[in-house]
Amino acid sequence: MLKLHGFSASNYYNVPKLAFLEKGVEFEEVLSYTGVGPKYRPEYLDKSPLGKVPALETPEGFISESRAILVYIEAAYPQTPLLPSSAFGQAKVQELSQFIELYFELAARRMIPNLLAGTEPNPDVLKEFGTNIRKAASALAKLSSFETFAYGDTFTQADIAAILNLPVVRDVGKRFLGEDPLATVPGLDAYCARMEERPHVKTIRADAQADRPGFMAHLKALYGI
Description:
- The chain is α+β, with helices and mostly antiparallel strands.
- It has helices spanning 11-23, 66-76, 87-109, 112-117, 123-140, 157-176, 188-196, 199-223, and strands at 2-6, 27-31, 55-58, 61-64.
């Protein structure tokens, strides 16, 4: 059986996890927190060269990086596809997914440690985040109307990127900017509400919440957070 190594509080881990759940593919979860530098567990570096999560254990060997794992899942388990059938549709789903990862997730990521630790971010970092996230929010409507799904009329990898990352961006904005930077994106509120009602998204949320105490204990032991 496929084994997914990582932890449920990680959105990177939840990318392939949600794909597995939506496609109905059986897999085993292997809890693995990671650290940095010499504090890595040496054996985990054989699974993921930089010691990051997730890592997928397959009969052929290990695959690291969420995007690469999604490629494997879609090719090995084509049932309940998470990509459209047309080349153009596939490219548009990847375009939207990458747009969300690059211009929303990466922008917010720099302040996740502050969010977790309850500290204030560097003012210059916060200013840059505010500028970049508002620009990206204006552009997002050109890629998706969020009328039903993020792209097309079925759940795709773009929905995985959207529902796992955009709520985090909104939380970061509310906490440090005093506003929801995505409030003006047409259709997004109703879209997020619909996605949160999906059974597998509920599973992801519940598992992430259950894992949070363990993850925070890990951070405290490793970094003193």
